[in-house]
Design a protein that fits this description.
Elements (H helix, E strand, L loop, with lengths): L1 H33 L5 E4 L2 E4 L12 H6 L4 E2 L7 E2 L3 E7 L2 E2 L4 H10 L5 E7 L13 E7 L6 E12 L3 E13 L2 E24 L2 E25 L4 E25 L2 E26 L6 E23 L9 E6 L2 E15 L5 E22 L4 E3 L5 E19 L4 E18 L3 E18 L5 E12 L3 H4 L3 E5 L2 E4 L7 E12 L3 E28 L5 E32 L4 E18 L11 E5 L2 E19 L6 E10 L2 E3 L2 E3 L2 E12 L2 E8 L7 E6 L5 E7 L4 E11 L14 H4 L3
Parallel strand pairs: 5-8, 25-28
Antiparallel strand pairs: 1-2, 2-7, 3-4, 4-5, 5-6, 7-8, 9-10, 9-39, 10-11, 11-12, 11-38, 12-13, 13-14, 14-15, 15-16, 15-17, 16-18, 17-18, 18-19, 18-20, 20-21, 21-22, 22-23, 23-26, 24-25, 26-27, 27-28, 27-30, 28-29, 29-31, 31-32, 32-35, 33-34, 34-37, 35-36, 36-39, 37-38
Length: 743
């Protein structure tokens, strides 16, 4: 009996133990569901995309990953937009990237997605960020590991559009004890092909031009970043980046009609070279165990672009107003920038954060433009377009931020940035100007976590946009002798006031309402006019020559207001087999102002110039949508299909009404160990190009169609080698980052 009781007891004990194990498994399973990582969530002033938890992160590159990130889009494969409108400034580990735009995109395309921990999208950046106008920030946070070793990536790509464009790149990272570093090199050749259709006129006159541009480019770039950990609290870093672009034998050919009659053919041949070198020295010291630190930077940037062009116009019939004409033009630009900044981040025991900093930028630009015109016998200097422009600019900035959690549900961040700008511009022997102005730029962010499923935030920011240095260079770029772009050294900085209300539901659905006010707004605007001058024919008889022209000038015009609503969703379906990233942007835009004169125009003796006023009184509703789909085709997670669609309605710009654009893209990705093969087809139906139609109240019109052959077929092969868990070298902030975006 005792034996039976003992057996029964053991059986019951085993049953209970087994049942407990079952219950334990059930509980663990439930816990696993409850603690599943949130792929997309709101944190303070930013939206965080947890790449490491995303099903689309493996086997691609960082640029492709960014295009799949909520609120970020790219419709041309060359630029990134936030909420479909704001330009994106790239930071890596909270440090702004130290390279020009094209080199940056190539770096992102060669960086494997496996290195990325998360991506932070800051639609309205705080006072500490070096951004202008309504730019947003994308902060890429790299994975961290203390392992010694090395890793790298090699990539080859062949892109076929109108021409075949090959490229290749490699990156190498290492860590050994206190030393770490990374380097990269990129080479590529591509030829841009564009087809133009330009037409302008009024009820009494019609001018039309048709033609194409073929622009071959060879590009070489690279950089190195070294970091030395002096001790656990101090680090010293040095970085160098360079880029060289050679564009020789670029040809722009246009056929020109006046009132339906073919009059002449214009050919513009151009050779250009661009060199860019930047250096940065960085020092960082941690001041306590809470994360407080002091960071300082000194930087130097040297930028040089040499451009030489020869423009000829061949008449198809000849009279006094339609003869052979030609001009030589040399447009060099040299930029030297010296910069320094120091930041102090202070964290308190109560969870508050202070950030204080000062910065200084000193920039010199030298633009010695030369133009010779053919006078019927030989080439002579054109004093109106020959100029030596020297521009000097000094910017002193100081900023402070305070951030803390006010209650369990409410947090806030307030900041103030002060900038003092002194600038002088001298067109030697002609004219000059001096501008000194101060800007006080406030910032405020309030975040309310209503519940685990609902989050609401409000942000206000004030910024300015300074003209890009090449916009200030008083030179021209000719389509035809009477149709050209004109830069403007007298353009003023624009003031931006940005507000945003953001709502998020279940970390998957979001709504973003934004309002932007722009004062002293600027753009490239078409100015029509007539040049009248007295001349003498071959027989000595005087006559009056009248030439109608269209001049696209960069200038201030007035103010602009932008109201936008973005509705978006980022969600995975069917156990992460299908991942969707959808957004719809609705906008209402107004442009108000006028341009009645050209401050760059100085007629020669005996000449008079009459300009038609360009008036802006525009109110416009517009819409765009981006639908990105990533589908896993195999249980091994080694085959993926991408189907993306973009459409934008007619939308107003300062220069006229932009036509409908759309693009349907496909991609197939295959992962084999450390190898990734990616095949992509962009814009299947060739519909993502720009067409602008502008009509003025007095009846004049200006239409531009720029067809850049957007359909592309691309094949890329990437190989990752070495220890893929290696920690990246510390990315360093450069003191002249704000200047780089203006080159």
């Amino acid at each position: 009996m005792k034996t039976q009781i003992l057996i029964a007891a053991l059986f019951f004990s085993g049953f209970v133990t087994a049942q407990q194990k079952k219950d334990s498994v059930k509980v663990n399973a439930i816990d696993a569901v409850n603690i599943k990582k949130q792929v997309f969530k709101k944190q303070g002033d930013r939206l965080v995309y947890d790449v490491a938890s995303s099903p689309i992160a493996k086997g691609t590159n960082t640029f492709t990953l960014l295009k799949q990130t909520p609120m970020i889009s790219s419709v041309d494969g060359k630029t990134l937009k936030i909420l479909g409108k704001s330009d994106a400034v790239i930071y890596i580990n909270n440090k702004k990237t130290n390279m020009d735009a094209e080199a940056l995109i190539e770096m992102l395309k060669s960086t494997p997605s496996e290195d990325i921990q998360k991506i932070e999208v800051i639609t309205v950046p705080g006072s500490e960020f070096q951004v202008e106008s309504k730019e947003g920030v994308i902060n890429i946070v790299m994975k961290k590991s203390r392992n010694n070793g090395y890793n790298g990536t090699m990539k080859m790509q062949n892109e076929h559009g109108y021409y075949n464009n090959p490229s290749a790149g490699a990156s190498f990272n290492f860590r050994q004890g206190k030393w770490s570093g990374n380097s990269n090199v990129r080479i590529g050749s591509w030829t841009d092909r564009e087809k133009y259709r330009l037409s302008n006129g009024d009820p009494t006159f019609r001018n039309e031009s048709y033609g194409y541009n073929a622009d071959p480019n060879n590009n070489y770039g690279g950089g190195i970043n070294l970091d030395y950990e002096i001790n656990k609290k101090q680090s010293l870093g040095l970085s160098y980046n360079m880029r060289y672009n050679k564009s020789f034998n670029s040809v722009l050919e246009m056929m020109n009609w006046q009132d339906g009659v073919l009059t002449n053919r214009t050919i513009n041949n151009e050779n250009a070279q661009t060199r860019n070198h930047s250096f940065n020295l960085n020092y960082e010291i941690k001041t306590d165990s809470l994360g407080s630190k002091l960071t300082s930077n000194v930087s130097y940037l040297w930028f040089n672009r040499d451009k030489v062009s020869f423009n000829e116009s061949f008449p198809l019939y000849e009279d006094e107003n339609n003869k052979y004409s030609a001009l030589h033009q040399s447009v060099p630009q040299i930029i030297n920038n010296y910069a320094a900044n120091i930041d102090y981040l202070k964290k308190t025991a109560k969870g508050a954060t202070w950030l204080m900093g000062v910065s200084y930028n000193h920039t010199n630009t030298d633009n010695d433009t030369r133009q010779d015109v053919f006078n019927g016998t030989n080439f002579v200097d054109n004093p109106a377009q020959t100029n030596h422009f020297i521009y000097k600019e000094q910017i002193l900035g100081a900023y402070i931020n305070y951030e803390r959690k006010l209650t369990e549900k409410i947090s806030g961040k307030a900041g103030l940035r002060y900038e003092m700008t002194k600038s002088t511009g001298d067109i030697l022997g002609k004219t000059g100007f001096e501008r000194n102005y101060n800007n006080l730029l406030p910032y405020l962010n309030l975040n309310y976590a209503i519940s685990s499923d609902h989050n609401l935030s409000y942000t206000f920011s004030s910024r300015i946009r300074r003209p890009r240095f090449w916009e200030l260079n008083p030179s021209r770029m000719y389509f035809t002798p009477t149709n050209y772009t004109q830069n403007n050294p007298f353009i003023l900085a624009s003031k931006f006031y940005n507000q945003e209300l953001n709502y998020m539901y279940k970390n998957a659905f979001y709504a973003n309402l934004s309002f932007t006010m722009i004062d002293d707004a600027s753009s490239q605007l078409p100015l029509r006019g007539t040049l009248t001058r007295s001349k003498v024919d071959e027989n000595g008889n005087p006559f009056t020559e009248k030439i109608k022209f269209l001049r696209y000038i960069r200038t201030n015009y007035g103010n602009s207001r932008e109201l936008g609503l973005t509705l978006g969703m980022n969600k995975s379906w069917f156990k992460d087999i299908w991942t969707t990233n959808y957004s719809v942007n609705l906008g209402y835009t107004t442009f108000n102002g006028s341009v009645t004169k050209d401050p760059t125009s100085i007629p020669e003796p005996g000449e008079t110039e009459e300009l038609e006023a360009y008036v802006l009184d525009i109110k416009n509703y517009n819409m765009s949508a981006t639908l990105n789909n990533n589908i896993r085709l195999s249980s091994k997670k080694d085959w993926f299909l991408g189907v993306n669609y973009f459409i934008a309605s007619r939308a107003a710009t300062e220069g006229g009404m932009m036509g409908v654009r759309q693009s349907l893209d496909f991609s197939i990705k295959k992962i084999v160990g450390d190898w990734t093969v990616l095949v992509e087809l962009y814009d299947v139906f060739n519909q993502n190009f720009y067409k602008i139609e502008g009509v003025q109240p007095h009846g004049s019109y200006n239409n531009v169609t720029n067809f850049n052959y957007p359909r592309l077929f691309s094949v890329g092969v990437t190989y990752n080698f070495g220890n893929q868990k290696l920690k990246k070298a510390r990315e360093m902030k450069s003191a002249n980052d704000a200047v780089k975006s203006r080159t």
